[in-house]
Inverse folding.
C-alpha cells in the first residue's frame, strides 16, 4: 500500500464514520476555547470541563481576566495540572489580549503564539476550530496515532508530524482530521493497549499488520 493509498483510505473511513468530529472541550466563544486549551495541556478534557464553568462565571472575557490576581486564578484552576504556571500564563494572556488585541482572539498562528501560554499546538487548535483554517494541531494522541497507523514515518517532533500530515491531507479536511486522530487515539488507538479488534481501520494500519505478521511467525516456529 502506498502512502497516498493509506491516506485516501483512512480519510474515506473517517469521513464516513465520523463526518462531524468536534472538540470535547466545552466553550461558547473563542476566548473560552483559548482558556480551555491552555488548561488542557497535560490535563484531560474531562477535568478542564469541570474547572471552566466557575472560571468563566468569574472571568467571562479577557478584560475581566486581565484585572484578576494570580491567587484568584489559581484557586479556580488548582485541580488541573501545573496550576501555578497556568495561572501565570492565563493572566498574561488576558492582559495581552486586552492591551494588544482589544480583547479579541486573533486569527493567525503568528499572533496567537505571541500570547503567554500559547505554543504552536494551542495556536493551531484555535486557528482550526474557531477560524476553520488548515492548521494541524499535534498533541500526544495525534503524534502517536499518526506514527502507529502509518500516516507519518520517522517523525521525531510534533512539527515533523504536522508537516507530514498537512502534506497529504486536503486543506479543507485538516480541521476535521485533527479531531479524527485525537478521538481515535483517546478511545480506540490508546497508548498502552490499542483496541485493534474494535478498530475500523485495522486493515489499513501499519502497526496492526506488523503485529499480525509477528503472531504468524511465532505460530510457524
Amino acid at each position: 500500500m502506498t502512502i497516498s493509498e493509506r491516506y485516501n483510505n483512512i480519510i474515506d473511513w473517517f469521513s464516513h464514520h465520523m463526518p462531524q468530529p468536534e472538540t470535547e472541550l466545552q466553550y461558547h466563544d473563542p476566548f473560552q476555547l483559548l482558556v480551555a486549551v491552555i488548561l488542557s495541556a497535560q490535563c484531560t478534557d474531562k477535568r478542564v470541563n469541570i474547572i471552566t464553568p466557575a472560571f468563566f462565571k468569574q472571568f467571562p472575557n479577557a478584560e475581566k481576566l486581565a484585572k484578576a490576581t494570580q491567587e484568584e486564578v489559581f484557586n479556580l484552576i488548582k485541580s488541573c495540572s501545573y496550576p501555578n504556571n497556568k495561572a501565570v500564563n492565563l493572566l498574561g494572556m488576558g492582559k495581552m489580549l486586552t492591551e494588544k488585541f482589544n480583547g479579541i482572539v486573533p486569527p493567525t498562528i503568528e499572533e496567537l503564539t505571541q500570547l503567554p501560554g500559547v505554543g504552536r499546538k494551542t495556536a493551531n487548535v484555535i486557528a482550526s476550530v474557531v477560524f476553520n483554517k488548515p492548521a494541524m494541531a499535534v498533541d500526544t494522541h495525534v503524534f502517536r496515532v499518526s506514527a502507529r497507523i502509518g500516516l507519518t514515518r520517522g517523525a521525531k517532533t510534533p512539527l515533523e508530524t504536522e508537516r507530514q500530515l498537512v502534506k497529504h491531507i486536503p486543506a479543507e479536511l485538516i480541521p476535521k482530521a485533527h479531531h479524527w486522530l485525537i478521538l481515535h487515539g483517546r478511545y480506540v488507538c490508546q497508548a498502552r493497549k490499542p483496541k485493534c479488534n474494535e478498530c475500523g481501520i485495522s486493515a489499513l494500519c501499519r502497526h496492526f499488520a506488523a503485529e499480525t505478521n509477528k503472531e504468524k511467525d511465532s505460530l510457524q516456529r
In short: The chain has two domains: 3-20+137-220, 30-129. The radius of gyration is 19 Å. Residues 30-129 form a domain with the Endonuclease III; domain 1 fold (CATH 1.10.340.30).
